[in-house]
Design a protein that fits this description.
It is a single chain. The protein is mainly beta and about 140 residues long. The protein has one domain. About 10% of the residues lie in helices and about 40% in strands. It is built from two helices and eight strands, in the order H-E-E-E-H-E-E-E-E-E. Strand 2 and strand 3 form a beta hairpin. The longest helix has 11 residues. It is globular and about 40 Å long.
């Protein structure tokens, strides 16, 4: 499936400013993948990596569990160390439709969970309007 354009993600990120911030935790990396909404969720598919100026900036993952799909984006320390303010956004995507978009000014963001287990989905994650990446499609 075709990826959303950078312009689409800019619109997505701008829209996220009006979305209540999702859980943002600045704890150690090992705690970064514990889904606060479904602790039994498991990652599906490979991790995608957002790059900015040749630097790995964030990881994007898709999870399933508790009857839902979840998107998760984690901003890497090396990016945080070299950049000031940013917004991180994540969403489950079906076709060209964003489901459950969540944004935060923190280290990580989890989507709330989309009722899309019966659909082909991918996770989208990005930093501000600078760069974004999608995981592979999972059906």
């Amino acid at each position: 499936m075709k990826s959303l354009s950078r312009r689409s993600f800019r619109i997505l990120a701008a829209a996220g400013l009006a979305v209540p911030a999702a859980l943002a935790v600045s704890g150690p990396a090992h705690a970064a993948e514990i889904n606060p909404r479904c602790t039994s969720s498991v990652q599906i598919g490979a991790t995608a990596y957002v790059t900015v100026g040749g630097q790995t900036a964030a990881s994007v993952k898709q999870f399933k569990g508790c009857g839902k799909n979840y998107a998760y984006t984690y901003v890497w320390q090396q990016y945080r160390d070299t950049h000031g303010k940013y917004q991180v956004c994540t969403s489950i995507v079906t076709g060209n439709t964003l489901r459950d978009l969540q944004c935060s000014n923190g280290v990580e963001v989890w989507s709330l969970g989309a009722n899309t287990l019966a659909e082909c989905t991918r996770a989208l994650g990005g930093i501000s309007d600078v760069a974004s990446k999608e995981t592979e499609v999972r059906c």
